[in-house]
Amino acid sequence: MNSNSFKIKGMSVTITSALLALSANDFNLLYISIVYFSLFVFWGLDAYYLSQEKGYRALYDKVRSKEGKTDFSLKLDPSNIKGENSWNKTLLNKTILPLYLIQGLIALALILFFKYKLSQ
User: Fold this and answer.
1) CB-CB contact of 81 with 51 (8 Å)
2) Average pLDDT in the chain
3) Beta carbons within 10 angstroms of residue 29's beta carbon
4) Which residues contact 99 (CB under 8 A, 6 or more apart)?
5) What average pLDDT does the segment 44-72 reach?
6) 9 touches 100 (CB < 8 A)
7) At CA 36, angle to CA 34 and CA 40, rounded to 5?
8) Among 10, 58, 78, 95, which is most exposed with the fewest C-beta within 10 angstroms?
9) How do residues 3-43 score in pLDDT, each as one tens digit?
10) C-alpha count within 13 angstroms, C-beta hemisphere, residue 81
């Protein structure tokens, strides 16, 4: 799951860069909307995979500390994905939020620059 998160971050940066490069030639609202839509989608997917990874770590800790008969099921129950491991909390995680926030701010700055440049 960690590699999925890494790949999602890479795809997000690549797609955002490509769409901003396309919008540099002609200011098109479609490119801008796709940039922000893709940022939100990748941010949500990244948070989902990190939430699942945290849930499996919690499951591992629960099984590791249990004595007696052990259930080897890898099914996550809702108790493993609550609180700090929830998707909502993971969206604001320090490993996820800065990347997507910086991408959004850079995209906004470039969009404003392109709009100003083309209006002159």
Assistant:
1) yes
2) 83
3) 9
4) 9, 12
5) 82
6) no
7) 115
8) 78
9) 888 899 999 999 988 888 887 777 777 878 888 999 999 99
10) 14
Distance between CA 45 and CA 59 in Å, rounded? 21
Nearest alpha carbon to residue 45 among 79, 98, 91, 108: 91
Rounded to whole angstroms, how far apart are CA atoms 5 and 60?
Answer: 20
Residue linked to tokens 């700055």: 109
Q: Is-contact 41 16, C-beta < 8 A? A: no
Write the secondary structure of 38-69 as one string of H (helix), E (strand) and C (coil): HHHHHHHHHHHHHHHHHHHHHHHHHHHHCCCC
Contact 70, 25 (CB under 8 A): no
Q: Which helix (H) or strand (E) holds 23?
A: helix 2-25
Neighbours of 14 (CB within 10 A): 10
